[in-house]
Hints:
Layout: E1 2-3, E2 8-9, E3 14-15, E4 19-21, E5 26-27, E6 31-33, E7 37-39, E8 44-47, E9 57-59, E10 64-65, E11 70-72, E12 76-77, E13 82-83, E14 88-89, E15 94-95, E16 100-101, E17 106-107, E18 112-113, E19 118-119, E20 124-125, E21 130-131, E22 136-137, E23 142-143, E24 158-159, E25 164-165, E26 170-171, E27 176-177, E28 182-183, E29 188-189, E30 192-193, E31 197-200, E32 205-209
Parallel strand pairs: 1-4, 2-5, 3-6, 4-7, 5-8, 6-9, 7-10, 8-11, 9-12, 11-14, 12-15, 13-16, 14-17, 15-18, 16-19, 17-20, 18-21, 19-22, 21-24, 22-25, 23-26, 24-27, 25-28, 26-29, 27-30, 28-31
Antiparallel strand pairs: 31-32
Amino acid sequence: MTIHETAIIGQNVTIADDVNIGPFTIIHSNVEIAGNTNIGSYCELGVPNNLGKVDTTIIDTDSTIRSHSIIYAGCGFGPGLTTGHRVTIRENTYAGINFQVGTLSDIQGDCSMGDNVRFHSNVHICKTSKIGNCVWVFPFTVLTNDPHPPSEILTGPIIEDFSIVATGSILLPGSIVRKNSMVGAATVVKGEVPIGTICVGNPGKIVGKTSKILHKGDGKPAYPWYRHFRRGYPAGALPEIFDENF
């Protein structure tokens, strides 16, 4: 274990032997940090507030939390959490294994992510959003939850397994992106994107099946995307058989 002399460690904190904690980082009370984890400088983990449903914050094994990242109390992450710099994750957020969230991204709390989810930089995830497994969300995407802002109604979007939301898109409150779908760049999604379809434009419109998009490398169907891209995914995470109906 290596804890920089300027780091501050709160009460009831559990830190495994092979954890590194950088300069000026604060680990608040009731945080559990499992082995082979690296936490950069100027981070805060387990930030307390009155919105957390539980006090404990869990960072599982093989995680990397880069400098200036802030994680509030009451969050839990499976093995392999990776953040960019200056990431904020609010209370009651839970993610499965290998969750990656890029620099300057903001998760507003009360959110759930499945396994192998990847958010690029500058992504905003609103409260009560639900993300499935193996979902990609690209830069400057915004998920929204208030149909009458400002109000007390919070209906976060749902993105199902293996779907993609491309750069600069906006998902409006209560919208649903079904499994194996693609939201094109700068699209505004309202309502439901059916399974295996492409939604593009403002307002977003369904323009066809993802299976009709051909890969520029081999000319075969580009989607589902795991036909041709599997880098960084553990064995068994992605289907080996492709459903030709998508």
